[in-house]
Design brief:
alpha+beta, three-stranded mixed beta sheet, four-stranded antiparallel beta sheet, 7 helices, 16 strands
């Protein structure tokens, strides 16, 4: 009787042992059209907390998988593949799986803007302008590098002229006197296309170099209330000899942004940090630079 029980247990253990056998499954995933390897494809083993991600060559591997376990291959832009470990090994003896591209019809999404982060930063700067205004500090000094350049911006006006010519053809009447008699002729104004071509040439030229460029390294010291000492350590100027450019450079490199108005060429402009400037300007956060525990914001 003891042997009879042992035989029954052995018979029941055989199929259980066969079902519990595990295999090593893996292969390579490629695009069905281009045959290019597909990286970052997600391979999940259903019912287990294990899976794999295909590498840059499209290769993947999962250990200790049962032949009856379900495999799911998925990646954005391709139709998912559902199969079992056993079926995968039978259908793809060389381990290569082809994924087919698919398209999705996405619903329209309406994104509404929240608080402009640049406006929030500017408002904080305005709120603290009295505390940070350098003219109110007892004393300070710094060494600075300044670069000021002037570029050509005639191309935009030429493009506008071309658009206008498409709607209205301009003609100019000219009267020429020959031997006491008057002869009328029609003379077209300079074509906007010719003007545009000319400006494009200028734009290409100034795309390689500036109309005016000045660079300087300056040491500046200040002592309250109005003592200022400025020493030019080095300076370099090239381009146009128009004195107005040098004047603008001097004005822009010395204005106080904490004042309500900035004066350039006898004209006053509202300072970005003037009270209420957010209602007059649109500020845009271009970049942020993290340095240790401080952050520098680039705002236009």
């Amino acid at each position: 009787m003891r042997y009879f029980y042992a035989l029954i247990m052995f018979i029941f253990l055989i199929p259980f042992h066969a079902e519990s056998q595990t295999v090593n499954v893996g292969g390579k995933i490629i695009d069905a059209e281009t045959a290019e390897p597909q990286a970052f494809v997600s391979i999940s083993l259903k019912g287990h907390n294990r899976g794999a991600i295909s590498d840059i060559d499209g290769k993947w591997n999962i250990n200790a998988a049962n032949p009856g376990d379900s495999l799911i291959f998925s990646i954005v832009g391709y139709a998912p593949v559902h199969t079992t470990v056993g079926a995968y090994q039978m259908k793809h003896p060389d381990g290569t799986l082809k994924l087919y591209r698919t398209s999705y019809n996405l619903k329209e999404v309406l994104v509404r803007p929240g608080i402009n982060p640049a406006h929030r930063i500017i408002q904080k700067a305005i709120d603290n302008k009295k505390k940070n205004n350098w003219e109110r500090l007892p004393q300070w000094s710094y060494t600075t590098y300044c670069r000021f350049h002037v570029t050509n911006d005639f191309l935009d006006s030429a493009q506008m002229a071309l658009e206008k010519e498409r709607n209205v053809e301009k003609k100019k009447k000219v009267t020429i006197k020959i031997g006491g008699s008057a002869k009328k002729d029609t003379l077209k104004t300079k074509s906007a296309k010719d003007t545009l071509a000319e400006k494009e040439g200028l734009d290409s030229f100034f795309g390689k170099q500036h109309l005016f460029l000045i660079e300087s390294v300056t040491d500046k010291k200040f002592k309250y209330p109005d003592k200022v000492k400025e020493t030019v350590i080095a300076s370099k100027t090239s381009g146009s000899a128009d004195p107005r450019f040098s004047l603008i450079f001097e004005e822009t490199s010395n204005f106080n942004i904490y004042k309500d108005y900035i004066e350039l060429e006898d004209k006053k402009y509202l300072s970005p940090l003037a009270y209420g400037s957010i209602n007059k300007y649109l500020f845009i956060l271009e970049d942020s630079i993290r340095s240790d525990k401080d952050t520098v914001y680039v705002i236009s």
